[in-house]
Task: inverse folding
């Protein structure tokens, strides 16, 4: 055999061996990248689905009625955080995230509890644009010093009928008290629902969402049905959601049933009794009116 042919055959064999080696060690890498991409896509899809329905991956439980423009966070409530990350106490504080900014509705009973929970949620007092106080009782006003000391001159909306002490309390810690005696729009789509007498004088917060009005109540001393009727009279239609204290802890089942049916008859679609509402109405809603019940507790995040 001629020498040039032998050399050519040797070269072909060497090139073939090199190609086999390259294919052996590069093919698994290509498959690995492909598999990783598929795995990542699947994981992301599952994560998005979890967020849309109910997510417990952070400190709280998230309930999404609809991916809309309002988020409610139960910062303080006596119904505890199932994960035990946020502290519970007898009282109420709800943070409302709107396109106009953050609004804090009531402040719970203690500045240290409010501080702990807000910081766990990643919220600084300076991030809050306004505070609305439902009424003068300490389980709704006790956390104010933490906000006011760290965010001086923040507006604090209080019922006009409150004792002079509440106004002085706000001033003492550096806030700007603004008294309200009738339904007033304080920001675009955000209203303080004018005070009603319980006793004491009590006002509520109303926020317009994509689903309709959201009514936040402190303790409903004037009566939750009466407050709802007041909203309909002043703003023209019933709230989509009512959340807060209903002041019927210890009430008999018959009374709770009457309250629920009156609210539904008025056009309320979702009911979230917390704080002083008691377990009876919550259990009743869960068993007999599940389509209208929205369970909530310290740490709940509700997106509407």
Result:
């Amino acid at each position: 055999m001629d020498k040039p042919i032998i050399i050519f055959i040797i070269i072909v064999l060497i090139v073939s061996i090199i190609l086999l080696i390259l294919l052996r060690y590069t093919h698994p890498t290509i498959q690995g990248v492909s598999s990783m991409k598929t795995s990542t896509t699947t994981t992301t899809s599952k994560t998005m689905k979890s967020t849309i329905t109910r997510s417990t991956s952070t400190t709280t439980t998230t309930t999404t009625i609809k991916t809309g423009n309002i988020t409610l966070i139960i910062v303080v409530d006596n119904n505890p955080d199932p994960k035990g990350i946020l502290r519970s106490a007898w009282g109420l504080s709800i943070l409302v995230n709107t396109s106009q900014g953050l609004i804090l509705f009531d402040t719970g009973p203690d500045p240290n509890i409010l501080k702990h929970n807000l910081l766990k949620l990643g919220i600084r007092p300076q991030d809050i644009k306004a505070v609305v106080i439902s009424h003068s009782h300490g389980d709704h006003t006790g956390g104010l010093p933490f906000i006011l000391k760290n965010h001086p001159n923040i507006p604090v909306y209080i019922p006009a009928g409150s004792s002079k002490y509440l106004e002085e309390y706000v001033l003492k810690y550096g806030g700007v008290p603004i008294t309200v005696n009738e339904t007033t729009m304080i920001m675009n789509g955000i209203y303080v629902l004018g005070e009603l007498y319980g006793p004491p004088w009590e006002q509520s917060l109303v926020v317009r969402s994509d689903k309709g009005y959201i009514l936040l109540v402190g303790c409903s001393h004037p009566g939750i049905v009466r407050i709802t009727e007041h909203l309909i009279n002043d703003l023209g239609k019933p709230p989509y959601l009512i959340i807060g204290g209903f002041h019927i802890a210890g009430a008999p089942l018959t009374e709770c049933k009457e309250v629920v049916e009156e609210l539904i008859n008025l056009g309320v679609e979702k009911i979230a009794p917390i704080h002083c509402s008691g377990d009876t109405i919550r259990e009743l809603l869960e068993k007999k009116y599940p389509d209208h019940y929205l369970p909530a507790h310290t740490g709940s995040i509700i997106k509407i």
In short: Confidence is low (pLDDT under 50) at residues 19-59. Residues 17 and 23 are 10 Å apart (CA to CA). The helical segments are 3-53, 111-120, 138-141, 144-150, 164-172, 224-235, 253-266, 279-288. The radius of gyration is 29 Å.
